[in-house]
Amino acid sequence: MSGYSHTFHACEDFESSDASYFFRLGLPIFGNPYQCLHSVLLVKLSTATEEAVNCGNGVEDLDASDFKSARDGTMTSMTQQHKPNYDSIELSKSYMDPVIGRSSSPSLAAHVYSNGKVQTNRSMTGNGLICSAFLANIDEHKYASVWIFGKSYNLPPWSVSILPDCENVAFNTAHLRQAEQACLPHQVAMQAEVSLEVRSNIVSVFSWRLFLVGAQTSVFTFESGSPSHSSRHKPSLLLPGVDGSYFSSTWWTSKEIIGTWGGESFATQGILEHLNVTKDTSDYLWYTTSVNISDEDVGFWSSKGVLPALKIDQIRDVARVFVNGELAGSQVGHWVSLKQPVQFVQGLNKLTLLSEIVGLQNYGAFLEKDGAGFRGQVKLTGLPNGDIDLTHSVWTYQVGLKGEFSMIYAPEKQACAEWSGMQIDDILSPFTWYKTMFDAPKGTDPVAIYLGSMGKGQAWVNGHLIGRYWSLVAPESGCSSSCNYPGAYSESKCQSNCGMPTQSWYHIPREWLQESDNLLVLFEETGGDPSKISLEVHYTKTICSRISESYYPPLSAWSRLTSGRVLVDTIAPELRLRCDDGHLITKITFASYGTPSGGCQNFSEGKCHASSTLALVSEACVGNNECAISVSNDVFGDPCRGVLKDLAVEAECSLSSATKEPRDEM
Question: Which residues of 293-324 are buried (b: 16+ CB within 10 A; e: fewer)?
Fold first, then answer.
C-alpha cells in the first residue's frame, strides 16, 4: 500500500506551498498560519465526516422517513455515525485556545490547542499542560505517518484524528467510511439497517496498533402494531369495507380550482419571477392569459395533422400547462426548456401555467439570484401566420391553491370545502384533495404512512403538515456495487437505490395523533390511488454489534484518570447494545468471542471461539434495555493466543411488560 511519512515542524517554517494549497481550497490566507490552518481543519473535519456518511438518499428524506426520533432514546442513522466525532470534540473543546498550527505538506494539517507552550517534538506526559490536537490528512489516496509529540500517528486518506490530550487518538473520521454498509437500500416495509457496523482490514497493514470504532446495527420491523397489539390490527389497505382497518371505510374528495380563484390575484404585463411574487407563502404560483384562435388556425392544424406547441426557454422546478382547465403536460428540472403540444378550440382559450417549487436552495454562491419559475421567452409555435410571443402579454397571477389558503386540511376548517364521497373516477385524478379518518395504532412505537400509491403532493394529519411527498423513481443507471468516499463531494458519488422510488414511507409523530378520529388530508397533483395507502408502526426487533480488540476504547474512558493521566491504552473497547425505549433485550440469539464471520442476522462461529460467550453476554444483557461488555480476554478468556479477536452479538428486543397494553378481546 502506498504511503509517506512526515514530521511537523516549527510554525515559522510554514512554506509557500501551503499557501498555494489554501488558495486551491478557496480559503483566505489571514496573515498568520494558525488561523489559516484552523480554517482548513474545520473544513476538513466537517467534509471528511459528512462525506463519509453520505448515503445518497438526500437530506430531505431524514425528517419524514428516519423513524428513530429523539423520543426513542437512540440515534438516527446519520446521528449515530457522527456521534463519536461529536463526543470527541466535546472532550477537546474546553481547551480551545489555538497555540500551534503547522504543516510543510499540502496534504497535511495540524492544529494544537493548549493552556501553555507546547513542545511538539516531545511527549506531553508529565508536563502539566492541558492540550488537544487535530491532525488531518487531506490526500485522497495515500496514508500518512506523522511524527509529533514524541510518537508516530498514522492518518488514513481524507481523514482527521482527534487527540483530546495530545497523546491518545480518541477518534479518526476515516473509520466511518464503512457506513455505506448500513446505507444499502431495503424495502422499508420489510426492514432497514439504520446504523453501522464498522469493520476494516487496515490492521494488518500497519505494525502499530490502529483503533477502529464500532456501533450497533438495528433492524427495524414493520407491523400493524407492536407484538403486544391485538390480532385484529392487521396490516391493511385503505379499501372501503375492510374490517379492522385503522381507517374509515369512506374517502371524500374535493377538486382544486385551476388558475385564478380569487383572493389577492392581480394582472400585470410580462412574466414575473416566482419567489418574488409568492414570498415563500406557497409552493404554487398560477399564470393565466387568454389566446384567441381563429377558424383558419384550427383548419390549418386539422389539414396538417399537427398541434401547436407552447415553448418556454427555461423552467424551474416544476411547470404544468393547462388549456381551458385541462392538464396538457408537465416539465420538471432545474432551468430546463419546455415544449408542450396544446390543443386549442376556435375562439378565446384560457392558457394557464402553474409554477411549482420543491423547496428553497439553502447553499451555494449567489443562491439569492437563482430564483424559480420561468425565464426567457414564452411563445406559441406552429401557427399558420407565425409564432405568438406571450412573454409580454398581460398575465393574471394567483399565489397558492384555494384549498391551501382556505386551510381545508385543518379539522376546524372542513366546512370551507365542498367534499363528496370518492367515486371510481376520482382515483388517479390530478389536482384533487382527499380526506379520510383513522384511528391511531396502539402503543408508543413510531407510526409510518405508505404513500407509494400516490403521485406528488402534500399530506396533513390533524392539521399538521407531514411534508411534501413525491413517488419519483430514480434513474436506472448511476449506481455502483462499490463505493469510495474519500475526496471532494459530488452528487454522483456513491449513489444507491437506482430504479427505485425516492421515498414511499413517511413518519407521523405520535404527538400529532389522538386515539381515534384522526383527520388525514392529501392534496394530489398528478393523480394517485388513495385506496392503497396503509398505516403501520415499527419497532427495532433485532440488534447486532461486532467489536474488535483493536477498536477504540469507549469515550467514557477519558473520564477515568490515574495520577492525573488518562490511560486509554489500558482500557478495552466495549460492545454496547440498546433497544428502543420501553423495550428490553429478551434473548441473545448469537454471541461469539474469537473469529466470528458474517454480519448482522448472518453471524457464524469461527475456528476460534470462547464457549462461555453466550452465557456471559446473556447474563449481562437479558432483561435490560441496554448493556455494555468489555471486549477482552479478561472477560472471556483467551480462546486462541496471538490472534486478533472480535466479539459479535445478535439480540432480540421485545416490549417491556411494564409498557404493554392489554390485548383487545377478540
Answer: beeebeebbeeeeeebbbbbebbbbbbbbbbe
Same domain, 74 and 140: yes
The answer on 481 and 390 residing in a single domain is no
DSSP 494: T
Q: How far are the Cα atoms of 130, 312, 323, 331, 384 from residue 309, in angstroms, in the given order?
A: 72, 10, 12, 14, 13
C-alpha torsion angle, residues 126, 128, 130, 136 (rounded to 10)? -30
Q: 57 Cβ partners below 8 Å, 6+ apart? A: 183, 496, 497, 502
Backbone φ, ψ for residue 177 (5° rounding): -70, -15
- CA distances in angstroms from 441 to 72, 507, 654, listed in the order given: 17, 13, 17
Helices (runs of H) and strands (runs of E) counted in the chain:
9, 32
3-state secondary structure of 246: coil
What residues make up the domain containing 356?
266-400
Q: Which of 484, 516, 536 is at the close of a domain? A: 536
**Cβ-based burial of 563 (10 A; exposed 0-12, middle 13-18, buried ≥19):** exposed
pLDDT digits (tens, 9 = 90+) for 64-113: 444 433 333 333 334 444 454 545 555 555 545 555 555 557 788 888 88
- C-alpha cell belonging to residue 77: 442513522
**Number of structural domains the chain divides into:** 3
Query: How far, CA to CA in Å, does 318 sit from each of 248, 282, 457, 588?
Result: 34, 14, 12, 51
**What whole-number distance in Å separates Cα of residue 397 and Cα of residue 114?**
61
CB within 8 Å of 480: residues ≥ 6 apart: 494, 495
Whole-structure pTM value: 0.70
Residues 6+ apart with CB under 8 A from 250: 240, 421, 422, 436, 437
Instruction: Identify whether residues 166 and 129 lie together within a single domain.
Output: yes
Q: Is 219 helix (H, G, I), strand (E, B) or coil?
A: strand
pLDDT tens-digit series, residues 447-497? 999 999 999 999 999 999 999 999 989 889 889 888 887 888 888 888 888
The continuous run of DSSP H or E covering 62 comes out as helix 60-65
Rounded Cα–Cα distance for residues 406 and 124 (Å): 67
At 24, list the grid cell.
Answer: 486551491
Q: Are both 156 and 34 inside the same structural domain?
A: yes
If asked whether residues 348 and 469 sit together in one domain, one would say no
Query: 3-class SS at 117?
Result: coil
Burial class (CB in 10 A: 0-12, 13-18, 19+), 292: exposed
